[in-house]
Amino acid sequence: MPETYCSGRARSALFAELVRLFGSLRHNELSAVLFDDLHAAPNPGLVVTAARHAGCTVVAACREDGIAEPTSLGMLADHVLDLRPLTEAQVDELMTGAVRGVLDQSVAPAVRTALGSLCGNPGAVLSVLESLRQQGRLVPLRGMVCLADPDQPIALPADHELVRLVERLTDTGPQLVALAATADRFRVDDLLAFAESTGRDLGACGRTVDLLVAAGILACDSQGALSVSCPALATTVLAGLGEHAVLALHGGIAEHLLRAGHPRLPQPALVADHVALAGAALPPTPDVVPLLCAEATRVLAAKPELAARWYRAALAHCRADDPARARELTGSLLRLLVRIGRYDWLGDFVAEVVAAGVPDGQRYEVAVGAALAALHTGAPVPSKVWDELVADPAGRAPLEFTTRWFEGREEIRLDELAAAFAPFRVGDLPDGPQPTPDDWGIAAGRHDLVVLFGYLLGDEYGRPRGGPLGLYHRVITGYHRGEWAEVLSAARALELCGPAHTPVHQLSRLLATEIRACEGELKLAAEWLAEAREDCPFPAMWSWAEIGLLWRAGEVQRAIDAGWRGYERAAAAAERGTVVGLHWLLVRLAMLESEAGNVDKLLELSELARKWYGRYGGRRLQMAELMLGGLAERDFASAHTAVEVLRKHDNQSELMRACLIASSVADEPRPWLHEAYDIAKRLGGDRLRMVIKARMRECGVTPPRQRAASQELSEVEIRVIALIQRGLTNRQIAAAERVSEKTVESYLTRLFAKTGCRSRLDLATASLEGRLTLPGCDRSGTA
């Protein structure tokens, strides 16, 4: 309040004017006055009292920690409502209502993770969504709103009150936040090094930390370690400082700690961390290399990513006249980055090695590093790196493999993959069962490079957290497990990641086409199919998806005609050795011919399945031969064998088709139709259930009755419910199950859909009380 109104008379005059102001707003009618952020007013009680004196209904929102005397303000209120942070479900609902469209299931967890302690704050949630929208990172794609560049950090808007609060603390506040956000461990005891290296007063630095902790910006644990409570705030503060300033900050601390004659003996880990984080801001200091190597080795088992950062700094500070150490560090770091799956770091590191000069005898290793980084991140090998490495025959094979991959004109060949990457492995094969030739063939047919690299490199290979290969692994794994929501989310993310015409992009689109068609979303299915080129290297898969879409649109004869045309292209590709999707195409075309009553065509397809299985073998074509033999020759034994084999291998869609075929040749179709119907319910495809229910009516079979959820939930879903009952968060459940938080979100989404529960609490309570059941009704409300 201005000093003009400090006297009692002046405040009385101000009060009278406020009453007159609020009274003028009424216009002889009842009026309500809304005060938001009332805690920001210098004398909130005076304003509220004036409005009420004028006869207005007052609704005020304020923070208790922002008012000197919150109790006195509360005494003025008829009702006080304590607004607690929003729950996860409420945050999700808020975000869904704030965007124009349906949010992809990966968006909400990403926003909540970025907000950290602010994830229950509606203002923060909405401001971040608006910021993402303005940045073009909320992208509509195939019926959903998706997050573009999901690996990039999410930032709080620059005008957020917490950002402004940090900025008001001169340079000290932003720098302290930057240190807490970037250092492996920044403790209160480390303030002395910060103060001395920046020339600041230690007491003032301590008071700034107190303010940041009091405001909830920093958290301080029992050992004095400081951390940023909201990662999105840290992202904004770091961007405001700029990369050069952050490097210089760490460089100044590192130089201070390394300075000769320093009165204290700092912890080696503290020195190593600031040296590594200083990057090029710290001049070459060869004397620090032994310390960096020793500390990296010490933390390698517990914190491999931190060890990699310190090894990389050691290499940067190596003496030019010590090629042996440089060579050792280069090889060790390349393999470490592959083992921990940090392919984003690997690409940058390879570029640094090439720029500095590849050590003798390591061109093949560096070329493999460049290739693995490109494949996993979706960013082709930079031209300078390519030109330097491809000139040596030793590095040519892995680099040429990436070229063929990004062109997307042909399927992968196992012999080429093995020749390019298998020599990178240096250790023995791990103990235990090894992948069989059939395992290799299936992984190659699925084009799941994550699995194939695991077979090739064993425990020397780390599965990626994201990137095109990681996303496609989620697509193909989720499809075979029947986790369709997860598949579609990963497929949409893949569309926004890397070059658009790699083999995995094409296969992902075809699987998304199939899922959307099964769900009855024919327009979206057609969009996915159009995006997958008809001339892609998988003609059988493309035709399988096409005729599935036509059939579900009610165009059976057109689907049959398209299927035979597609088979001609698929057969030509099979003659060249490409059989990806051939087994699915044969089975689908045979089921269509059976539906149309074309016995001769059905027998012909059975012979074709036998022919291709005889030539190429493998479990997939074996299943096609068994299923078509059962269908064409009414051989229940073959159909039953196919079902039993598929039950042991994770492919829910194919198992459902096998059950349908078994039901058509069995003396008693009921159990096979019930199993197919249960699978269709779990998959979530309305159109699938309609087809199976029509078959049931033809056979005089009624749909299965409602059963206890424990009879139909998977083992993983049952474990998730048990962990929820113990009070674990999604992050803790992810750690216990060794999956990502996104996967836990996917499990919960399916559990809510299956059980009708609307929250984690409802799910846990229903399970504890024994009333957790799976409704036997589809979305139309019929059994």
UniProtKB/TrEMBL annotation:
Family matches, as Pfam families: GerE
SUPFAM superfamilies in UniProt: C-terminal effector domain of the bipartite response regulators
Where does the HTH luxR-type domain lie? 706-771
Q: Does Acetylation count among this protein's keywords? A: no
Is DNA-binding tagged as a keyword? yes
List the GO biological process terms: regulation of DNA-templated transcription
Q: Which InterPro entries match?
A: Sig_transdc_resp-reg_C-effctor, Tscrpt_reg_LuxR_C, WalR-like, WH-like_DNA-bd_sf
List UniProt keywords, sorted A-Z: DNA-binding
Signal peptide annotation: none
Q: Which GO terms describe its molecular function?
A: DNA binding
> PANTHER family from the entry?
TWO-COMPONENT RESPONSE REGULATOR
- The name under which this protein is listed is DNA-binding CsgD family transcriptional regulator
Q: Which organism is it from?
A: Kutzneria kofuensis
